[in-house]
Design a protein that fits this description.
Blueprint: E1 2-4, E2 9-15, E3 33-38, H1 42-53, E4 59-65, E5 68-74, E6 89-94, E7 98-104, E8 110-117, H2 126-146, E9 151-155, H3 167-191, E10 195-199, H4 204-216, H5 220-232, H6 241-247, H7 255-275, H8 285-294
Helix pairs in contact: 2-3, 4-5, 7-8
């Protein structure tokens, strides 16, 4: 691909090997090349030009369809900048039915949060799913851009299954939708000049639920997004004193070990609640703690 500075246009040079192709190390001649103009949509021109100026690698695939030629250009949109700890950070928690976005200030305190709902994403056709994911990613990116956010954190993709519902259904729907949303959101953010970082997904939902959801009046997903943003800024999630008193851990336990112990208690408590036919849909962190610790002896 070549950018013509005089005309401000792009063109594609395609090598057409002679027939039969000479395998003896023949040099490519000028007449073996075909040059065609490229029509690049306006939103992508600046990104493509910057990549060409950096001499970055790219892949081009030309497809003939319905009497026309479409050119598909792909290249990585990597971030080579470090996290700026003096700027706000947005965290995004991905779920098949809702994407939660929470912004934290440089000091780690909560700033603002919003949920972007997509309940039909799991059930619609492939084409409709792609359309929904693309529009959802655009809405999220535009909202963050309007807030002046320059950096965003997401969880590293992990397909571990810890849900209580049908495992096969969750594996097929949740994992596919999560990857689709992840890719669409990353591309939408980077197109708008917003840096994207990934952090470990370890205990983000659990920490957010038991540490921040009641304190800030957030849903479990919004609280998880808060933890993701704080983790990207480098904050360590120490367990609150109230939880430490109730868990009574052994001396020398590290933060992740403490959260791991709480995760084990919480997972066991959910199974026990189902087994005992408890109605726990409206329970908050306080109710869960009482139930969890009541069965530990």
């Amino acid at each position: 691909m070549v950018f013509d500075e005089v005309t401000g246009s792009f063109r594609l040079n395609v090598y057409i090997p002679p027939e039969p192709e000479d395998k003896s190390g023949r040099r490519r001649k000028e007449e073996d090349w075909v040059t065609v103009p490229l029509e690049i949509p306006a939103p992508y021109r600046a990104i493509l030009l910057q990549h060409l100026l950096r001499a970055g690698a790219y892949t081009v695939r030309v497809v003939r369809k319905n009497g026309r030629f479409d050119c598909f250009i792909s290249f990585p949109l990597g971030d080579d900048v470090p996290v700026k700890k003096d700027l706000p950070m947005a965290g995004i928690d991905l779920n098949p039915d809702v994407v939660a976005v929470t912004v934290v200030l440089p000091d780690g305190n909560f700033h603002i949060s919003r949920c972007f709902w997509c309940p039909e994403l799991v059930y619609v056709s492939h084409e409709k799913r792609e359309w929904i994911a693309g529009n959802l990613a655009k809405d999220i990116a535009e909202w963050l851009k309007s807030l002046g956010i320059k950096q965003v954190a997401l969880e590293e993709l992990s397909f571990a299954q810890d849900h209580d519902t049908n495992r096969l259904f969750n594996r097929i729907t949740h994992n596919f939708c999560k990857k689709l949303l992840f890719n669409r959101i990353v591309v939408a953010l980077r197109k708008r000049g917003i840096a994207v970082f990934t952090v470990s997904a370890r205990f983000t939902s659990l920490i957010g639920y038991f540490k921040y959801s009641e304190a800030y009046g957030l849903s479990a997903h919004q609280a998880a997004a808060l933890v993701i943003a704080r983790r990207a800024l480098g904050f360590a999630e120490r367990m609150p004193r109230e939880l430490l008193k109730r868990l009574s851990p052994k001396e020398g336990w590290k933060p992740f070990g403490l959260w791991g112990k709480l995760f084990g208690l919480y997972k066991a408590a959910r199974k026990r609640a189902i087994r005992e036919d408890k109605i726990f849909r409206g329970w908050g962190p306080t109710e869960w703690l009482s139930f969890m610790l009541s069965g530990t002896g």
